[in-house]
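Chain A, query sequence.
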Amino acid sequence: MTESTKTDAEWMQLAYEQAALAAELGEIPVGAVIVSQDQIIGRGFNAPIRSQDPTAHAEIVALRDACQNIQNYRLPEDAVLYVTLEPCTMCVGALVHSRISRVVFGATEPKAGSLVSVRQLFTTGYYNHVFEFEGGCPHELCSQQLSAFFKLRREQKRQQKLQEKQINPQHQA
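Chain A, predicted structure.
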């Protein structure tokens, strides 16, 4: 395995940029990059709304991209996923099947996180492949990006309700 010239934080910055692309499209801002031999082999961001695909999480999109780029359904032994949010159960399953070697994530996901938060899937011992994982790189930056997105979304919904009341005042509660 070759030693990377970039740090986890530098690779995570690229995942963060992918998340920003998702936010620009109105998707929940989660971004991911997959790195092997100091090169990005896959990248992706959340896209379930625009693709009308509930499996289009950043991790899955990046896995699909990487596998197409390397022309194999299994990733190289040194492949590392950098993702801005802790993976959910579906994504952990896909990462196991892809044989990823390591996952570095930014923010924890208290509702659906499946590595350290809610499910902690690797404590069961059921899997034929287990990868290393590390969270909190950089936790604050990734958390703030998600918080800002949801704050904006709540404000947009509030404005929409106000406009609806102005257009149709007889339906006020």
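The first helix runs from residue 8 to 24. The beta strands are 31-36, 39-45, 80-85, 102-107, 132-135.
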